[in-house]
Amino acid sequence: MHRLNILLKNLKNQFNDWLLEQEPYTLHRPLRKKFVREKVISIGNNDLWQADLVDVSNIAKENKGYKFLLTVIDVFSKFAWVLPLKNKSSEGFN
C-alpha cells in the first residue's frame, strides 16, 4: 500500500509538471491570491452585524417591484436575514 501511495504521488507530480508546461493551462488557470485577513471579534449574539445591499433590479418585474435585497449576518452566530426592498431609502421598511 505504501508503494502505491508513492507511485500515485509521483504520477500526480509528473502530471502537474506536464500541465504547467502546456500554454492553454498556464494562460487560463485560476490564480491563487493569498492576502492577510483582518480578524473580526464578536463577544456574543447581536454584538456585531455585517450588512450588504444586493441589486436585483434586473428581475424586479418578476419580484413584485422589489429591486434590492438587504442581507444582514450576525457575525457570532452566523444567522442571516434577507429583506426585500423596493428602493434604497429608509422609508422602504420598518
Structure, described:
The chain has 94 residues and is α+β, with helices and mostly antiparallel strands. The protein has one domain. Helix content is 28%, strand content 21%. The protein has 2 helices and 3 strands. The protein has a 3-stranded antiparallel β-sheet, with no helix packed on it. A hairpin with a 5-residue loop joins strand 2 (68-74) and strand 3 (80-85). The chain is elongated, with a radius of gyration of 24 Å. The termini are far apart. The mean pLDDT is 86. Residues 26-94 form the Integrase catalytic domain. One of its GO terms (biological process) is DNA integration.
* Total helical segments: 2
Q: Unreliable runs, pLDDT <50, ≥5 residues?
A: none
The portion of residues assigned to helices is 25-40%
User: Biggest sheet, strands in spatial order?
Assistant: 1-2-3
Q: Mean of residue pLDDT?
A: 86
Largest sheet: 3 strands, antiparallel
Report the strand count: 3
Strand proportion, as a percent range, falls in 15-25%
Which overall shape is indicated by the principal axes computed on the Cα atoms?
A: elongated
Rg over C-alpha atoms, rounded to the nearest angstrom: 24 Å
> What is the N-to-C order of secondary-structure elements (H for helix, E for strand)?
HHEEE
* CA-CA gap between termini: 64 Å
Question: Helix/strand/pairing class, anyone?
Answer: alpha+beta
| Domains, number | 1
Protein name: Integrase catalytic domain-containing protein
GO molecular function, one term: nucleic acid binding
Domain Integrase catalytic: 26-94
Organism: Brachionus calyciflorus
